[in-house]
Design brief:
31% of the residues lie in helices and 16% in strands. The protein contains 7 helices and 8 strands; from the N terminus they run αβαβαβαβββαββαα.
């Protein structure tokens, strides 16, 4: 285990709309536990894919995370032909809205990204919805891109199920890796470009604030643009 990662987490803690905003109860944050199985990925940049509701918020949180070099919103799980927002948002494709995260494991490990994901990004007990958004395109899923990531994700999900932090069953899935399709340009860096957008203010800015509050050691004030 690298001391860098240990120190960073010592504080643990006109366009088409992608996401809708009906009135719902505020999303809760959970201080997820430190992973018992820490990922061992070696040196060099690594990449992983996360699905956790509207990709604006997933991208925003990881773009404020130290060690993340890029966070790109996109689609995963369906065909190249159906990887278009107008189709994905209808819920008729197999795609989920996802974010492809590139990170430096010398600074932030995959298991630490998982901890952030379950603490402030996604409610793992919700099936086919997150926050105000409903449909299979908003499912909670981990898409590991290596055997080590898959082993880490499997172990961490098992640990969370034992933890009793959630009263309802955890339904977050580990999905097989397929082709990632980048979303339309107007979705990229959306929170940074549109900080006063009603959806960002109501749903995603609080997630970034929770990252800063729960995990000040890994929070980066500046938004890392993709």
């Amino acid at each position: 285990m690298r001391r860098t990662g240990l120190v960073l987490l010592a504080g643990l803690a006109p366009l088409t709309l992608a996401c809708q905003a009906p009135l719902h109860a505020a999303e809760k944050t959970v201080a997820a536990p430190m992973a018992e199985r820490q990922s061992r990925e070696g040196s060099g940049l690594k990449t992983a894919i996360f699905a956790g509701g509207c990709f604006w918020g997933v991208e925003a949180v990881f773009s404020h995370t130290r060690g993340v070099t890029s966070a790109i919103s996109g689609y995963h799980g369906g065909t190249a032909r159906s990887a278009r927002y107008d189709l994905v948002s209808s819920g008729i494709t197999d795609h989920a809205e996802v974010v492809k995260v590139a990170y430096d494991p010398r600074i932030i490990r995959y298991d630490q990204l998982l901890r952030i994901y379950f603490s402030v990004i996604a409610d793992p007990t919700l099936r086919n919805r997150q926050g105000p958004d409903e449909g299979p395109q908003y499912r909670s899923a981990l898409i590991p891109l290596s055997a080590e990531q898959r082993a880490t994700a499997t172990a961490y999900l098992a640990q969370l199920r034992r933890s009793g932090l959630w009263s309802d069953p955890i339904v977050t899935a580990i999905e097989p890796a397929g082709k990632f399709h980048a979303a339309e340009a107007y979705h990229q860096d959306f929170a940074a470009k549109n900080p006063r957008h009603a959806y960002i203010v109501r749903w995603d800015a609080p997630k970034v604030a929770a990252l800063a509050r729960l995990y000040p050691g890994v929070y980066r004030k500046d938004f890392r643009r993709s």
